[in-house]
């Protein structure tokens, strides 16, 4: 949840950024890139866990969560530019 909160807060800041980037704005862009990468990595881990799940319900829940993380990572990448 902390990562998701960080991503949502970062996405809000990115919406305010302009085309000309100051060092502070560049730092925000870098933070967004890092947050998106962390979300993608977490999604990959969940997909691996789903592959090793002992039942289909657990696997489906893990896959759904992984998909949600990937979607969030995509939106962070789109909104910070």
Jot down its keywords:
elongated, 81 residues, 83% helix, mainly alpha, single chain, 3 helices
How does the overall form come out from the CA principal axes?
elongated
Query: Count the strands?
Result: 0
Largest sheet: none
Using the CA coordinates, give the radius of gyration: 15 Å
Overall SS class? mainly alpha
Percentage of residues in helical conformation: over 70%
What's the topology here?
Layout: H1 2-15, H2 23-51, H3 56-79
Structure in words:
The protein is mainly alpha-helical and 81 residues long. It has a domain at 33-81. The protein has 3 helices and no strands. The protein has helices at residues 2-15, 23-51, 56-79. Helix 1 runs antiparallel to helix 2 and helix 1 runs parallel beside helix 3. The longest helix has 29 residues, at 23-51. It starts with a helix and ends with a helix. The mean pLDDT is 81.
